[in-house]
Amino acid sequence: MGAGHAHRLYVAGDSPVHRLAPQCKLVAVLAFVLLVVATPRERIWAFGAYALLLGAVAVGARVPLGLVLRRIVIEVPFVAFAFLMPFVANGDKVAVLGLRLSESGLWGAWNILAKGTLGVIASILLAATTEPRVLLLGIERLRMPQLITQIATFMLRYGDVVTAEFARMRVARASRGFEPRDLRDAGVLAKSVGALFLRSYERGERVHLAMVSRGYDGRMPVLHDVGASAAQWSLAAALPLAAAAVTLAAWMAA
Questions:
Q1: How many structural domains comprise the chain?
Q2: Using 50, 70 and 90 to split pLDDT, how confident is the model at 170?
Q3: Which residues, in sequence order, are CB contacts of 192 under 8 Å at separation 6+?
């Protein structure tokens, strides 16, 4: 796959986590999330242990805590849903700060918040330490169908291009005095979206013809290898193995 500019989610660095092969990190994160999901929700201490493990990874990767906290805002819709559960769920009621809340709803909200937050943080650390184009190479190494990885690659590369094109169209509308105020302006916006689609389609045709003229045969050239050594797999396994120990202890204490 061709080289590309650094993605805004990626935090450049030279830590041991950054140097790990992408397929190692993908398998490690997936195993960690599955272990977190498999943990009984009543074992609150286990989720604290998982958080410490992710904290150790963040320190090893030199990813700032503030960056993680800013990006974790993406889970706000799920947090809002979790906060509603104690009010709408059925079952026995308990008094909390003068409110009668569902006990099963409280446990359900905690389950969503704890497991969802840990999964989001793990994903944030993965994105912060792995360039997206390299991550796609890792997915391909894990035998993902190449057609899917190529589609994802083009989406990644040209998503920013289409966004920039839309921004230029918005500036052009504003320079001509157009400012959307109400539903009566929806027609102009709809025409803009249609024009953006046509421009994107035509650009895609030109890019495809340019690639074919340069020898594209359905497979993107790989500019660098992302092979993983046994040492890298061993290092990546540290997180899921530690999480597995926590999960086992949680189930044994059940």
A1: 2
A2: confident
A3: 166, 169, 170, 173
Q: For 5, phi and psi rounded to 5 degrees?
A: -75, 155
Q: In DSSP terms, which residues pair with 93 in a beta bridge?
A: 102
Q: Which amino acid is at 185?
A: D
Q: Are residues 57 and 96 in the same domain?
A: yes
Pair 40, 149 in one domain? no
Give, in order, the Cα–Cα distances in Å from 206 to each of 127, 164, 251: 31, 18, 57
CB distance 244 to 39 below 8 Å:
no
- CA–CA dist 62, 56 (Å, integer): 10
Q: Tokens for 196?
A: 């953006």
Domain that holds residue 199: 144-213
Give the separation between CA 72 and CA 75, rounded to whole angstroms. Answer: 6
Q: Do residues 130 and 17 lie in contact, with contact meaning Cβ atoms separated by under 8 Å?
A: no
pLDDT band at residue 74, thresholds of 50, 70 and 90? confident
* Amino acid at site 175: S
Kindly report the pTM of this predicted structure. 0.77
Considering the domain architecture, whether residues 32 and 116 belong to the same structural domain is answered as: yes
232 and 206 part of one domain: no
**By C-alpha distance, which of 122, 86, 128, 83 is closest to 106?**
86
Q: Are 165 and 193 in contact (CB under 8 A)?
A: no
- What's at 229, amino acid-wise? S
**In terms of domains, do 128 and 246 share one?**
yes
